[in-house]
Prior knowledge:
alpha/beta, three-stranded antiparallel sheet
Amino acid sequence: MTNLTYEELKLPNYVNSSAAVTLKVKDGEVVKDLPLTLCDVVVAAELAGLNILFVSDTGRGKTQLVSDVVWSHFGGHDDGGKANWADGRPNFEIQELFERTKIDRTAAVYDSDEATQLKQERTSRLLVVVDEINRAPKVKQNEYFDLAEGKYTFRGRRLKLGRDGYTLFFATANLNKSNGDFQGTFELDRALLNRAHLTIDLDHRAFRPTPEDKIAISEREADPRLKVADPRDISDKIIGEHKEIMAKTRTSDPYMLAFSFMIDDGLNFCDKDTFKEKTTTFPMLCGDCAYSGKEMCSLVKSSSDRTTKAVKALAYGLARVAELKLGRAIEVDALDAALQAYKFTTYHGNLNDVVAQADFGSRKQELMEQVAGKLGERIDLLRAYLPIIDEGREPIVVVYNNNGKERRVERSNKVIDALRRKGVSYQEKDLRNELKENGIGTEWVDAYARRFKK
Length: 454
């Protein structure tokens, strides 16, 4: 582990102590809920090396938040800093960041290849920020794809940005979700949205500063302009943490694997489609569907491979920030951490836009909260089966009532005989049937079970 501390990661100007996520952790012998703030989530993404798109109406503090990260974690974007900063505008050219033209006035011949030189110091910087990215038209937004992928093309060569395998892309966008009447802004490109591994909606009520935060802000100097923090560079420590998190993502965690299957293959299931998948049917066939699991599957479709990887990385990032916050090693519930991370994939095109507009007034993050809640219920169903599968046995449980509480245990002759002797009624349930009844596809279950077959 690096010697990075939670205190070093605190942002100097942006104030927001809202509990954006709550993790289930085991601290010693105590199991408890640990709230993490919105700033903690941003820091977790930094450590995991995940791109973030910050969206909101004007005046929510997006630029201040990003500026704090740039200056207090990466030393700024001036000479000597480790970040690049660009303002989204129609006439912006990415070459302005990474290239320069050197002209020798005494030369008789001008050679454009020799005159155009790469700013290598710029390509090695770790963070690229594009502020108000949707002030650039969609055709111009396409030029940011490579930056979000950590690459830049110079003279036909694709160069890697950053260093030591670490590169980061932050963007902000002003979105009026109610009527879209902002002047000078353009629709966000779908492909660019997907390259933002996470989206953070600062309009969402659970992500806004608390009343106590607002009191603290009001007691500062009444200057509405952006506050630039003193430059401080902790990027070497961030890179060190990133390497350790990436090493964890390469290990085989059965619980993380199960969660990835749930949001990928599991959410691709459509009972009404001939081929039992949502590839071309979502959400058109949802309206008059009578399927028992409709309350789940009609709200969301499967996540892309890029998204499932981002969720896994953020889950480990959140776990690491939780440890830094408490100042000691803890155990974090992997399924819960993944579920909390999943909430930040709202703008990846996986939600039912019809429902978001009709039932939530286009508040997509509110719909995502409902989706995460319902997915959490399905995850709780899964929990009883995973230890059984991990032991190489069939995912079948016996469900019975004991003192008013539902109990689930692995099916065995011993358990069934005991329940019969006591006259306790019970049901046998199979993971495949339970998930399918609740809107989750199960084609992945057999392959997952074979992974642990002994």
